[in-house]
């Protein structure tokens, strides 16, 4: 006989989805604004590829997870 199936549950409580969405989207938007300001104000001689990639990558991660939690809080289970 096979053991009974165990229900799959989220590691994050459902009540935290809206809060996580707002916080992560806010951080992502601040980092995106910082990235655009850096791009607009730095000259080609003073620009740093590492800073651009780091800021863009971290902003992308926060915006991605923020969008995920926004969808989850709206009831769209992806």
CA-CA gap between termini = 32 Å
Overall average pLDDT: 93
Shape: elongated
List low-pLDDT spans. none
Kindly estimate the percentage of residues that lie in beta strands according to DSSP. under 5%
Helix fraction bin: 55-70%
Estimated structural class: mainly alpha
Main sheet properties: none
Total DSSP helices: 2
Order of helices and strands: HH
Total count of strands? 0
Rounded radius of gyration (Å): 18 Å
Protein name: Dolichyl-diphosphooligosaccharide-protein glycosyltransferase subunit OST5
Transmembrane segments: 15-38, 58-77
GO biological process, one term: protein N-linked glycosylation
Subunit structure: Component of the oligosaccharyltransferase (OST) complex.
Question: Brief description of this entry?
Answer:
With 78 residues, the chain is mostly helical.
Give an overview of the whole structure.
The chain is built from two helices and no strands. The protein has 78 residues and is mainly alpha-helical. It has a domain of 50 residues. Helix 1 runs antiparallel to helix 2.
């Amino acid at each position: 006989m096979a053991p009974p199936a165990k229900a799959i549950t989220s590691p994050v409580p459902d009540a935290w989805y809206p809060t996580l969405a707002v916080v992560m989207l806010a951080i992502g938007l601040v980092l995106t604004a910082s990235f655009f300001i850096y791009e607009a104000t730095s000259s080609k001689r003073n620009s740093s590829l590492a800073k651009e990639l780091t800021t863009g990558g971290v902003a992308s991660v926060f915006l991605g997870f923020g969008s995920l939690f926004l969808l989850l809080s709206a009831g769209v289970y992806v």
